[in-house]
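The data layer described in this paper is built around a simple, fixed record for each protein. We quote a single record here, exactly as it is kept in our systems:
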Amino acid sequence: MVSSPEEICLHVCVTCRQAGGPDDRALRPGAILHRALIEALEQPDAPKVRVEAVECLSVCKRPCTIAVSGPGRWTYIYGDLNAETSVETILDGLRRYAATADGLVPWRERPEAFRKGVVARIPPFKTDSAA
């Protein structure tokens, strides 16, 4: 079963920060990236995805971190993103992810930040008992 683009979820770690960064959660790079992505995804030409703020993706040594997932699709976790400059890269990656049936974007077709920043690739959850 192929999921629709609207079922794709972008998880953004809002607690991500550089070592020694601000304690104020609103000023942390992860929170800044989340706000920038929410704003960018409101544009008419933006990919149709659900955005969820998460408290931690446990990739603290590689902030800012996001995860992209969807039913029947591989989940990717990406780190080392820049809160100030990564929004367009993330949108490009989301468009490419949405264009696949299973979430597997060929390595050479991924934005460079996604090729270099991939932390994990997680297989789709199987719901049938034969899996």
Summary: The radius of gyration is 15 Å. Strands lie at 9-13, 50-54, 66-69, 75-78, 118-122. The chain has three helices and five strands.
